[in-house]
Amino acid sequence: MLGLHVRTVRNYVREGRLAAVRIGKQYRIAHEDLEAFTGRPASAGETVRRHRHVEVSSIVQIDAISAETAHRVTTLLMGASASRRSGEAPLRVETAYDEERGRMKVIVLGSLSDSAQLLEYINTVVES
After folding, report:
1. 38: CB partners within 8 A, 6+ apart
2. How many separate domains does the chain show?
3. Is residue 71, in this structure, part of any structural domain at all?
4. Which UniProt keywords apply (predicted)?
């Protein structure tokens, strides 16, 4: 960060030229103290660029579902997730069917709108 050797910085701290707090075997230097020592802001990279990103993780459990209906749901979801254009937000779908219990689990990871659409697809097939 400063391009100084560790011993040089330790000497500055011991001499009182650079304020620091000792924690265990390390020294902690506050941003304000570093700015005062160098005469400039701690780093130009501190400004954080923020952009809104919404992602959904959904787990759907469907009980008392036949193997045929589970297959229909799986085929529909896999087809919908595979038909995405390049540049769109990633969408991940995983399904698991327990034939003994007649239970299906669907895991959907993706954007809010894409996940909502897939959940609507599931609802349409299950309710029909």
Report:
1. 2
2. 2
3. yes
4. DNA-binding
Q: How far apart are CA 19 and CA 28, in angstroms?
A: 9
Distance of CA 72 to the CA centre of its chain: 30
pLDDT digits (tens, 9 = 90+) for 104-124: 999 999 999 999 999 999 999
Looking at the fold, whether 109 and 61 belong to one and the same domain comes out as yes
User: Is 29 within the bounds of a domain?
Assistant: yes
Q: How far apart (Å, rounded) are the C-alpha atoms in residues 121 and 128? A: 11
What's the pTM? Answer: 0.60
The pLDDT tens digits of the residues spanning 24-52 come to: 888 899 988 888 888 876 555 556 778 88
Mean pLDDT (the chain) is: 89
Mapped onto helix, strand or coil, the DSSP state of residue 122 is: helix
* Residue 121 burial (10 A CB sphere; 0-12, 13-18, 19+): middle
- Which residues of 7-91 form beta strands (DSSP E)? 21-23, 26-28, 56-62
